[in-house]
Design goal:
mainly alpha, rod-shaped
Length: 99
């Protein structure tokens, strides 16, 4: 049945024995490997640049005091009067206080 707009025979849904024509030549395995090697080298360069930037940022953070985690000073525990008395009695019995 011909196509109504172009008067060409309708080929929808029919298989053709002819392979699709392409202007591209088949790529050899060697060429594919070279292309992959070039892409990997470019990716390695980018990774090296990113690593350098990361190292510089870490160095700057350490030098400025912002890196390495924040440490808050430990507040001394307040002794109760009982704990104070026991500590002083122990120190006196050990001879640390010469009254």
């Amino acid at each position: 049945m011909p196509d109504e707009q172009t008067d060409a025979p309708d080929t929808k849904g029919k298989e053709t024995d002819k392979p699709a024509e392409s202007d591209e030549k088949p790529i050899s395995e060697y060429d594919k490997t070279l292309a992959l090697v070039k892409r990997r080298e470019e990716a390695s360069k980018v990774e090296a640049e990113l690593l350098d930037r990361k190292e510089k940022l870490q160095q700057n953070a350490l030098l400025s005091g912002e890196g390495g985690g924040t440490q808050t000073p430990v507040e001394p525990k307040e002794e109760t009067s009982k704990e104070y008395r026991e500590r002083v009695e122990k120190e006196v019995s050990e001879g640390k206080h010469n009254d």
